[in-house]
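Side project, low priority. Logging it here so it doesn't get lost.
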Amino acid sequence: MLQSSPNIAYLKAAWAAFTGISGTNAGQSYEAAGLSFARINHSTLVLKDRVQVSTMPLHYTRHELRTGFLGRIENEVRKAITQMEAVLLRDLCIPYGHELVIELEEGLRQLRRRGHRSLSILVRPSDHEPLETRAQIEMRVFLDSPRACLFASLSDAGGTKQVDVLAQASKRARVPRAASYAELAQQMADTLNGAVAPYLTERLAA
């Protein structure tokens, strides 16, 4: 199990390196992308703005370099999500009859296939029993730096009444940024707890 904290400086540099030689920049030179290289024994160190972002063999293709970036990014992402999950399970008040779902593997599949840089953490009904109030919460977490977008609504059992509980929240609360993924998770938990709790003290349909 990965226990160490994700390297934020590495994540930012690795994403920048990947972007510099992918998509519309696929034909851009390594120099124009800000990449530099150093040979150490039988390996090539790849650097972006003086941050080492990959270690490659002496001979490799551009595709292999991009794939290498994503593989190392994935390792850091797993650390970040492990860190966030611990905070959310401890501090996020999950409404009765609901569950926390982290779409980690789907997010990582999209990362590997398309270089997609976000994944969703959800709070949703577990469907084990009827509920008077149903929550639909999405924490869309970005994988290039500790930032997220929050969406949260509550509805009555029949779906006839729905309220966006973050409608009056500040942009800073709805689109949080932090210095670490643990701090980001704490911010999200605090924002969602404060937004959802008032609506759960009474029946939504009342």
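Brief comment: The mean pLDDT is 91.
Revisit when time allows.
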